[in-house]
Amino acid sequence: MKLGLINSAWVQAGRGTAFGIRKTKEIGFDSIDIFADPLDLDADEKRLIKHECDLAGLPIVSVACVAVGLIDFNPSVQRFHVERVRAYLDMASDFGARNLLLVLGEYIWQKEVIPAAEQWATGVSHVRTLGQDAAERGLEIALELEPFQLSLLNDVPSMSRFLGDVDHPAVKANLDISHLALAHQPAGSLEALRGQVAHVHISDCDGVVHGDLPPGRGVVDFPLYLEAIKALGDDDLTISIELEYSPDPERIEEWVAEAYNKTAALMHAAGLRG
Fold first, then answer.
1. Is 68 exposed, middle or buried (0-12, 13-18, 19+ CB in 10 A)?
2. Domain locations in the chain?
3. What is the separation, in whole angstroms, between the first and last Cα of the chain?
4. CA 45 to CA 49: how far, in whole Å?
5. Can you state the angle between helices 17-27 and 43-56, rounded to 10 degrees?
6. I need a surface site. Which of 112, 116, 125, 225 has the fewest CB within 10 A?
7. Average pLDDT of 196-210?
8. Interhelix angle for 75-95 vs 116-136, to 10°?
9. Measuring CA to CA, how many Å separate 192 from each of 5, 7, 262, 271?
């Protein structure tokens, strides 16, 4: 399996596009994921991302998109976000990516006022449509499991049920290991998603609060989860490190290098990377 990095680690520390991509390669990563909104990027920045990744020999595996408006109760907001996700799919295709990482967000108003089943059905309908759009571009959609109480997809059973309801081969799951730990999902539960996983995120946490820390700085039992991921039998998966909001942005290179070294060692020990 490849070991990648989501470029938001650099962006949130105030480092430029070219710097982040070059450092990602220099540290030793096999690939990179891009967290950038196509509606906020101009053509020059999009070209720069692709050019620098090609120059570094660093394939773009995933493009991350947060589209909580897909389950908004206003049809106009839903329509906007469907078109916005399509713009992400176009950018992912231009980048030669494999998947669009999609975050659906949370039920509104504590599942009151708007019935939860209606919000669920709205999400299913839009994701099925977008799954077909992704397939036409040679892409997959990887839905992220979020560990928060009101997240639409907040455990393995809800992810499995949603994928079953969408019922499109281009729509699969993203497994975020720290999210699984925060949601108290045992490693053995991943078997329910066999053949339905498109991408993996890895980071650590304190077991209580979302953290996105370098592995080893929290309490996550990585060997158990990596063993379960290996047992799924998909050697083409990429495991991408997700680091958010470094406590010391001036030392971001050390922060990323630490995460790389710890993750590479964990993957090697699990037989997932040479």
1. middle
2. 2-269
3. 9
4. 6
5. 20
6. 112
7. 96
8. 30
9. 26, 30, 28, 22
**DSSP state at residue 109:** G
**Which single residue is written with the structure tokens 């997809």?**
153
pLDDT at 235: 94
Q: Which among 186, 178, 129, 131 is positioned nearest to 157, based on CA atoms?
A: 186
221-228: list long-range contacts, CB under 8 Å, 24+ apart: 221/181, 221/187, 222/177, 222/266, 223/266, 223/269, 223/270, 224/187, 225/177, 225/180, 225/181, 225/187, 225/190, 226/177, 226/266, 226/267, 226/270, 226/272, 227/187, 227/270, 228/187, 228/188, 228/190, 228/191
CA dihedral of residues 256, 257, 263, 267 (deg, nearest 10): 130
The listed CATH number (3.20.20.150, 3.20.20.70, 3.40.50.2300, 1.10.10.10) that belongs to domain 2-269 = 3.20.20.150
Other Cβ atoms within 10 Å of 261 Cβ, number: 15
Closest CA to 139 of 101, 100, 110, 113: 100
Which amino acid is present at 151? S
Quick: pLDDT tens for 66-116.
Answer: 999 999 999 999 999 999 999 999 999 999 999 999 999 999 999 999 999
Residue type, 264: A
Segment 6-63, tens digit of pLDDT: 999 999 889 999 999 999 999 999 999 999 999 999 999 999 999 999 999 999 999 9
| Residue 182 β-bridge partners | none
Residue with tokens 């010391």: 248
